[in-house]
Amino acid sequence: MEVDYNPMDLPINSVYELDSEFRELEGTDVKDMRLEADAVVNDVLFAVGNMFVSKNLPCAVDMAYINVEIKEGTRYCLELTDAGLRVVGYAFDQVVEELHSQYHETVYSLLDSLSPAYREAFGNALLQRLEALKRDGQS
């Protein structure tokens, strides 16, 4: 692949430079869960009915909430922390304090446990990607 720039010349913390709210994190090892939540949503949005970071529940450096509607139509509220992701409610923006669900290390694992349609969509996307790589390798 040919590029016009040297990747080593790019600023390391360019994401933080865009928003002064994140400048305080620059140079630290702290993960901002708001950024992590956005990345989680963007990663699997293709394989669920709807998914977005909650604007009604508090997000902080150490915790964020994600609303997801799986393809089967069931809605969940997920909590994202350093421990992973877990279901905390069965409706958008709902946190049930008494609910002590299992933490999942990845969004893939959590959605795999909740949604057969997610599993199928993810498998199909993976297959299409492999076929595209195969075609590109043959040309």
TrEMBL record:
It comes from the Eukaryota. Residues 34-133 form the GSKIP domain. Signal peptide: none annotated. GO terms for cellular component: cytoplasm. One of its GO terms (molecular function) is kinase regulator activity. One of its GO terms (biological process) is regulation of canonical Wnt signaling pathway. Belongs to the GSKIP family. This is GSKIP domain-containing protein.
